[in-house]
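Extended Data, record Metallo-beta-lactamase domain-containing protein
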Amino acid sequence: MATPFDPADLPTGILMTLSPLVARVLAPNPSPFTYTGTQTYLVGGADVAVIDPGPDEAEHLDALIAAIGGRRVVAILCTHTHRDHSPAARPLSALTGAPIIGCAPLTLSDDGPRADAAFDADYRPDRVLGDGEAVAGTGWTLAAVSTPGHTSNHLCFALVQDKALFTGDHVMGWSTSVISPPDGDMTAYMRSMQRLLERDDIVYYPAHGEPVENPQRLVRGMMGHRKQREGQIMRFLERNGDSAIPDMVAEMYKGVDPRLYGAAGRSVLAHLIDLNGRGMAAPLEDGRWQMR
């Protein structure tokens, strides 16, 4: 019998080369929401950019400095400001002198149970990249692709030379992204997914999970999954009438790790808000939802 896969068993702190321009270092922060942990990417050769520096943990910072190996760091790029992605930007900037560049700062408190990492309240970028703006080094260019949905400030970064896209948490290699209101927005997420579907990237490098080598197929599948979930919600309301979100989660997420029920509930809420905006569902004063 095969030994069950345990994400915590994967080696952390080791520089793994993925292409001539791309390498990664896995942070030691596996969890039900980060899978094996946050993957920090190094892009370049003679000089490098660091994408999603990860949590501010001494072990991870030491591993990143060893991986950089004295090369000049052109930029420290953050896809978004959840605490498993951006906090190491500050100490890494202090150690390397590199500017923090990428997504806009964003801090807010969720109005329900946390569905993923909280926001990094101390994130202060030296430069915010707008959609299409780029950072370049010797033989590489990274262009920002605005992808709101998981968070309103989420960016992906396109490596022009490889037709590769660093997708942060917008598209992950192991699970669908958490969409948690009030900042997480299902309507924006689906628009962003459609945008990726129309691109010609040949590989995705997510912050969690392995590289995705048929990205358009995965995006189509993830969009289909969201449409199926939307259909489940509508059928539940049709069958049961006015309903509470925990009741929907109990039926629709059977077999899911109970630790993920909070995230599931936030995802259902995101779908309901989207359905409300499209005139298909409506909230009631007691927290339940009904069909329109």
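Summary. Confidence is low (pLDDT under 50) at residues 1-5.
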